[in-house]
Amino acid sequence: MNQSRTQVAIVGGGPAGLLLSHLLHLAGVESIVVERQTRAYVLSRVRAGVLEWGTVGILRDAGLADRMDREGKIHDGTAITWGGGKRLFLDIKQHTGRHFMAYGQTLMQEDLDSAIDRWGGTIVEEAENVMPHDIETDTPWVSYTKDGEEYRIDCDFVAGCDGYHGVSRTVIPAGVLREYERVYPFGWLGILSETPPLPELIYCNSPRGFALASMRNPMLSRYYLQVSLEDDIDEWPDDRFWDEISRRYPDDIAADIVTGPSVEKSIAPIRSYVAEPMRHGRLFLAGDAAHIVPPTGAKGLNLAVSDVYYLSRALIEYYATGGWGLLDGYSDTALHRVWNAVRFSWWLTTTLHRFPDQGEFGQRIQESELDYLSTSDAYMAAAAEQYAGLPL
Ligand code: FAS
Ligand code: PHB
User: Which among 164, 108, 132, 117 is positioned nearest to 11, based on CA atoms?
Assistant: First the structure.
């Protein structure tokens, strides 16, 4: 058994795990990241594209924002279209004074990888059979195997940053863990194409189903269509995708969509999920390991960042003062923000997507909701505040 020791063992090398390792390092706290995939595989997963202004601030303060500030695009709000041509602009700058940054999670992950390599951090790739142990004691540890060898990392704390399908959540006793879930009866078919994107993000409620136009850079567009959970990616050749998205958007918007061959295409299931508490003993969960939101509200990655912001502050306080105050308050603090984002993502998902059993009555209710939103400054301000992300 190859043995090592660190202060914080981090399970999972996605954005939550890497950002936590970096923030801890900046405060002189040691960690080791244990990731079951290769870095290349993690980078190959095309995911989020919108960073809340709070996330932007955390990345800037941590010295992780040079490329984001060069290549990211700042937006003052997002558009919503419905009812065959109606539209509104959810102006988060006007209502909150904040913006959001269009910058792909893949690039953020690369920036984190590079930063950790620069200061010589440890990211174990292709770790198998990762398992946290003795999290209810003062001497937790993490085991894993790699290239046929067994490894043990003794630590003070374990951070479970291993996503929805990770192992960390499973070591919280069944009698302690409370789970809340809603699975939606549709998926998101996402496409990347090397074409100029529309200038703004545009969410679309159409009787044919939801659509979203987004971007990654001036020559890389990201589009989504709501599809049936029974659909297979092979049933969606590029031509069908472009034809369908032009049917869902009003003609004048559809006319501006520049089509082209897809360079990535995938279908993701849509669910809301929260695990409570986000801490048990010396195990702390952060990011998708603790919660999943429909991408409609662009909250998933941003929640991972806010969890890590709270957890890093708590761990830094412990190592600086021996105090447990922020650690003891971590789960409640993180969950307050999580549930707000879960509720907003659920509301926007139920307002913009076509549900199988909603009928024409349900369609008109959704359109009436958007009509009201577009005419009420108070409602727009509330929606803008939540899309922008509540202050940390
Ligand atoms: P991640 O899942 O990103 O990372 C967890 C890491 O842990 C992974 O690298 C995994 O390989 C590793 N791991 C898992 N089990 C392990 C084990 N047993 N041992 C060691 N390592 C293990 N969010 C948005 O805001 N907008 C979007 O458009 C959007 N689209 C998405 C599309 C898809 C298909 C998915 C799955 C998610 C999407 N999300 C989106 C949400 C996504 O961005 C997550 O919120 C974000 O990746 C969360 O980061 P982490 O918590 O680090 O989890
Ligand atoms: C994206 O650009 O991938 C994106 C943007 C906004 C969302 C979801 C995804 O709500």
Answer: 132
Residue pLDDT, tens place only, 177-230 = 999 999 999 999 999 999 999 999 999 999 999 999 999 999 999 999 999 999
Within 10 angstroms of residue 375's Cβ, the number of other Cβ atoms is 10
Domain segments of the chain as ranges:
2-74+102-181+271-348, 185-270+355-388
CA distances from 194 to 259, 263, 283 (A): 9, 7, 42
Q: Which residues carry out catalysis?
A: 75, 203, 295, 299, 387
Q: Tokens standing for 161?
A: 């940053």
2-74+102-181+271-348: CATH topology is FAD/NAD(P)-binding domain (3.50.50)
Which residue has 């190859």 as its token pair?
Answer: 2
Report the nearest atom of ligand 2 relative to the CA of 78. Answer: 6
pTM of the model: 0.97
Q: Would you say the CB of residue 298 lies under 6 angstroms from ligand 2?
A: yes
